Amino acid sequence: MRLTRYFLPVLKETPADAQIASHRLMLRAGMIKQSSAGIYSWLPLGYKVLKRIEDIVHEEQQRAGHIPMLMPTLQGADLWKQSGRYDAYGPEMLRITDRNDREMLYGPTNEEMITDIVGTYVTSYKALPLTLYHIQWKFRDEMRPRFGVMRGREFLMKDGYNFDLTKEDALHAYNRHLVTYLRSYERMGLQAIPMRADSGPIGGDYTHEFLVLAETGESEVFYDSEITDLSFGAREIDYDDKAQCQAVLEEFTSRYARTDETHDEAVFAEIPEARRRVARGIEVGQIFYFGTEYSEKMGAFVQNEDGARVPLHMGSHGIGVSRLLGAIIEASHDDKGIIWPEGVTPFHAGIVNLRQGDAATDSACDGLYNALIAAGLEPLYDDRDERAGGKFATMDLIGLPWRITVGPRGLANGMVELTSRRTGESQEMSPEAAVQRLAHIYADR
Ligand SMILES: Nc1ncnc2c1ncn2[C@@H]1O[C@H](COP(=O)(O)OP(=O)(O)OP(=O)(O)O)[C@@H](O)[C@H]1O
Ligand SMILES: [Mg+2]
């Protein structure tokens, strides 16, 4: 993409109403525009990152054998009356009446609908195990939408639902989700810590929230500092291997890590004092096993091996896809702007032309641009007729991890400059070497 042909409405001033860095930076970098409270348009740059995050989520879900589909945003009220949640959900649910006076709602989540679908078509244990998911917009009429996309009213969520014959199988699905979530967040450059969470009115012991540590997080968290040393890394995993998935769960959840809702001072006090941490975190996901509650209410039963009719064991598992943009920026920015992790960056590298209009510099930039594309990368070329300082400021603000600077002085020696946004370090090299270096950096992403 060439900047002169792109749509990147960056703001010079800091928006006054944005309280936290990620919200300010997303507005300044022209990623989002508020449409009404808690509802945003995703401008091209923001949309690109949103898609990158979605892609990672899709890949990691499908790697584990989970099946993508798509359910509507608008739902009929009937299913929710059947589950008893139509009234229970309260004012957070946006209720709509159609022209025939039918009660509808903008879905805040999809347990009812997916259970109805599976209940309709799945009749035998032979179709199990089954995990279906979608990435779809949700609406919750939050009391206090704030912090930009972090607590929106309309937001994008991945929600997945497992259907299993036994509790044991459903807990394997739970563990599988834990593994996929660890992998997904790490690919996004994040450390998200699974913390024991409150299961709320549905009950059950099996729920973890994934929290990204950040001062601006809305949840208070308590944890053993040893937990931040853990990382999933590049290890191979067989998602059908129950023991392997269970071992990952144990590795990542055996140390103390809880949100304020489940925090227990007495248990926390047993950790050596030097390792006790009290901090704040952003919830970027939650996994949940809840048994047969919905399947019984919504009629999702199958015949088991003995021919008996039994309710399915279920769990639901969410990732806050749109909230993740805010969380990533909170975790990765400086006073100049965003610093995208390579895994989610909207463009792989920026090209800054220091003397636009100079034939040799322009042609070197074009050559680089084409070479990067040929190497499978997406460059953003700042080809505006603008001072170097302004170009650097834009690149720093929008946070591309790598910048190639091309100017007549370097070109005289056949050199361009490759700069890391994160460290600020620059290195002179030939254009070919710069392309090669970037291809290598992005090879496994
Ligand atoms: N209003 C919102 N705006 C953006 N993302 C949200 C919002 N509410 C929930 N999410 C994201 O969707 C994920 C799954 O939804 P879940 O039902 O667990 O949310 P929740 O526990 O009600 O969230 P919260 O406690 O933050 O209100 C959450 O972990 C979070 O990342
Ligand atoms: Mg939650």
UniProtKB/TrEMBL annotation:
<feature type="domain" description="Aminoacyl-transfer RNA synthetases class-II family profile">
    <location>
        <begin position="38"/>
        <end position="341"/>
    </location>
</feature>
<dbReference type="InterPro" id="IPR004500">
    <property type="entry name" value="Pro-tRNA-synth_IIa_bac-type"/>
</dbReference>
<dbReference type="GO" id="GO:0005524">
    <property type="term" value="F:ATP binding"/>
</dbReference>
<keyword id="KW-0067">ATP-binding</keyword>
<dbReference type="InterPro" id="IPR006195">
    <property type="entry name" value="aa-tRNA-synth_II"/>
</dbReference>
<dbReference type="InterPro" id="IPR033730">
    <property type="entry name" value="ProRS_core_prok"/>
</dbReference>
<keyword id="KW-0648">Protein biosynthesis</keyword>
<dbReference type="InterPro" id="IPR002314">
    <property type="entry name" value="aa-tRNA-synt_IIb"/>
</dbReference>
<comment type="similarity">
    <text>Belongs to the class-II aminoacyl-tRNA synthetase family. ProS type 2 subfamily.</text>
</comment>
<dbReference type="InterPro" id="IPR045864">
    <property type="entry name" value="aa-tRNA-synth_II/BPL/LPL"/>
</dbReference>
<dbReference type="Pfam" id="PF00587">
    <property type="entry name" value="tRNA-synt_2b"/>
</dbReference>
<dbReference type="InterPro" id="IPR004154">
    <property type="entry name" value="Anticodon-bd"/>
</dbReference>
<dbReference type="InterPro" id="IPR002316">
    <property type="entry name" value="Pro-tRNA-ligase_IIa"/>
</dbReference>
<comment type="function">
    <text>Catalyzes the attachment of proline to tRNA(Pro) in a two-step reaction: proline is first activated by ATP to form Pro-AMP and then transferred to the acceptor end of tRNA(Pro).</text>
</comment>
<keyword id="KW-0436">Ligase</keyword>
<keyword id="KW-0547">Nucleotide-binding</keyword>
<protein>
    <recommendedName>
        <fullName>Proline--tRNA ligase</fullName>
        <ecNumber>6.1.1.15</ecNumber>
    </recommendedName>
</protein>
<comment type="subunit">
    <text>Homodimer.</text>
</comment>
<dbReference type="GO" id="GO:0004827">
    <property type="term" value="F:proline-tRNA ligase activity"/>
</dbReference>
<dbReference type="InterPro" id="IPR023716">
    <property type="entry name" value="Prolyl-tRNA_ligase_IIa_type2"/>
</dbReference>
<dbReference type="Pfam" id="PF03129">
    <property type="entry name" value="HGTP_anticodon"/>
</dbReference>
<keyword id="KW-0030">Aminoacyl-tRNA synthetase</keyword>
<dbReference type="InterPro" id="IPR050062">
    <property type="entry name" value="Pro-tRNA_synthetase"/>
</dbReference>
<dbReference type="InterPro" id="IPR044140">
    <property type="entry name" value="ProRS_anticodon_short"/>
</dbReference>
<keyword id="KW-0963">Cytoplasm</keyword>
<dbReference type="GO" id="GO:0006433">
    <property type="term" value="P:prolyl-tRNA aminoacylation"/>
</dbReference>
<dbReference type="InterPro" id="IPR036621">
    <property type="entry name" value="Anticodon-bd_dom_sf"/>
</dbReference>
<dbReference type="GO" id="GO:0005829">
    <property type="term" value="C:cytosol"/>
</dbReference>
